[in-house]
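Hallway conversation turned thread

IA: we were arguing at lunch whether anyone had actually written out N-acetyltransferase end to end. Turns out nobody had. So, for the record, here is the sequence (143 residues) and right after it the structure tokens. Reply here if something looks off.
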Amino acid sequence: MPLTWTDQLADIDWSELSALYAAAPLGNKSPENLQTVFTNSMFRCFASENGKLVGVGRVLADGVDCAYICDIAVLPSHQGTGLGKEIVSHLVDLSRGHRKIILYAVPGKEGFYRKLAFRRMTTAMAIFDDQAGAMARGYINET
């Protein structure tokens, strides 16, 4: 069945999106928080099949200097089909013209993003609300 693509927020079921993130698995994200972050993102895309949300992504961007691709999520039933690549490629195309496009990924997925021309940054740093948890999950280290 062909996918239906949109960037519109009006028809998004935020509870369904929250369930997609849990299934992906990318953690527990409340419907209310997802509505806030997608609404505040410059670019977004949603892929559906037979009316069911199967993949999403978004970009925080300032319009000139920096675009930050984040929250790429694909249902397990659609992982390995090229959908994630399509979402990232679409968001990169929307972000062209920015001086840099940055992507935040789950540890272990670096190889996937390397195939899409992303390279590891040596200077990226972060403060997480749960530093110990972020360290345990491999997002940050002591150095």
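OS: looked through it. The first strand starts at residue 4 and ends at 6.
IA: good, adding that to the notes. The domain at 4-136 is CATH 3.40.630.30 (Aminopeptidase).
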